[in-house]
Amino acid sequence: MSGQPVAPAPADPRLAELRARLDVVRRRINAAAADAGRGDAPPQLIVVTKFHPAEDVARLAALGVTDVGENRDQEAADKAAQLQELELRWHFIGQLQSNKAKSVVKYAHAVHSVDRPQLVAALAKAVRAEQERTGRGDLECFIQVSLDEDADGHRGGALPADVPALGDELSAVPGLRLAGVMAVAPLGAAPEGAFEKLAEISARLRTDHPQATGISAGMSQDLEAAIRFGATHLRIGSDILGPRPALR
Hints:
41% helix, 248 residues, single chain, alpha/beta
């Protein structure tokens, strides 16, 4: 007697939802890049998966996503460990305490929130140790810049005047690679002015560090403006993954 036929795997409605949302965002990116004369070189999409389960990250990988972003070390480390068989590049995009550097360099391809000399020193020490232990590649580092008008910089980041010195420090350290700049548009203001300012800061940084071509800017609500002003990396979360899951 022959064995029972294998039933097809049940449809995954969440995969279908993510595919549809991802397609919409990719079309937005391609259209904005074409409008900016960059149709042949659109920015890199980083899907921000914070608060969403590792299963969603695996679904995104199946849909061709290669770069994911997280802003909490414990959550990022857990997901990276669960999904280590997938060829994903993990981007740490949140505020980073120096004492978390040792953990972050175990999984991160890039850190987008370098904002002070103490963090540069901590990352340099951690990367050296990790390279000796595992041979990992250099860590890409973006300088996070505060674009807020007030001195407190409540969205985080270094003051624009401090960017050149941070760039010099990052470029001088083996194991770290100065990738460029990152910023979040200030709350309550049109993003165009902020991203234009970031583009100017990037241009000044590149006069001394030509390799620092990256501009990490643009989220779900302002990706078109970011692309218009030269963003090379977009950090998109809610428009792809939807509302964050309810906490249990």
